[in-house]
Amino acid sequence: MVRRLFLILIVVFVIYYFSIKPPEIKQPLNFNHKSHTDLLIECIACHRNAEEQRDAGIPNIETCSLCHNPENTPLWNITSHSLKGYIAEKRQIPWERIYRVKDHTLFSHRRHTGIARIDCRVCHGAVTEMTESIIRPFIEFSKQRGMNNCVDCHKKEKVVTDCLMCHR
């Protein structure tokens, strides 16, 4: 009886563990990645640090206003009122960060995109097809797979899998 109860508890725990989704994160604006990539704008145009620094960075309002400005009339006419407000006030958009690498993990966008030339979609999925803001991390980074995605890719590409390369 105790053994059966124990097995039931284990099954319930496993089902619960794998069914939990991270909470949705509310973003200040709806961001349509697809409309940007349909115009052949590459990720690096907005996420300017991706090839040179550890963090890819979230675009600042100055980056947005390079294209979204009153002088670019066709684009300005379809720019959302909310974005126009941030641009007019020269106020940064308070984007909520979606991906957080654990403190003990060393991940560098520069090593992956700048040096290894890995396409952003390999890790971030089909972001280029998204028509709404990202509200939670994709399954690639969930606890179900965790670092196994990274290790699997490193093995496939014959890259170092030594723990100390990524963990401090």
What does this molecule look like?
This protein is mostly helical. The protein has a domain of 109 residues. 43% of the residues lie in helices and 0% in strands. The chain is built from 10 helices and no strands.
What is this structure's SSE topology?
Layout: H1 2-19, H2 33-37, H3 43-46, H4 61-67, H5 73-78, H6 81-88, H7 109-115, H8 121-124, H9 148-156, H10 163-166
Please describe the structure with a list of short key phrases separated by commas or semicolons.
mainly alpha, 43% helix, 0% strand
Short structural summary:
By secondary structure, the chain is mostly helical. 43% of the residues lie in helices and 0% in strands.
SS class = mainly alpha
- As a percent range, the share of strand residues is under 5%
Poorly predicted parts: none
Radius of gyration: 20 Å
Order of helices and strands: HHHHHHHHHH
Sheet bearing the most strands, described? Answer: none
Q: Which geometry do the CA atoms define?
A: globular
- Output the number of helix runs: 10
Helix content: 40-55%
Number of strands: 0
Average pLDDT rating: 85
Euclidean distance between termini CA atoms? 45 Å
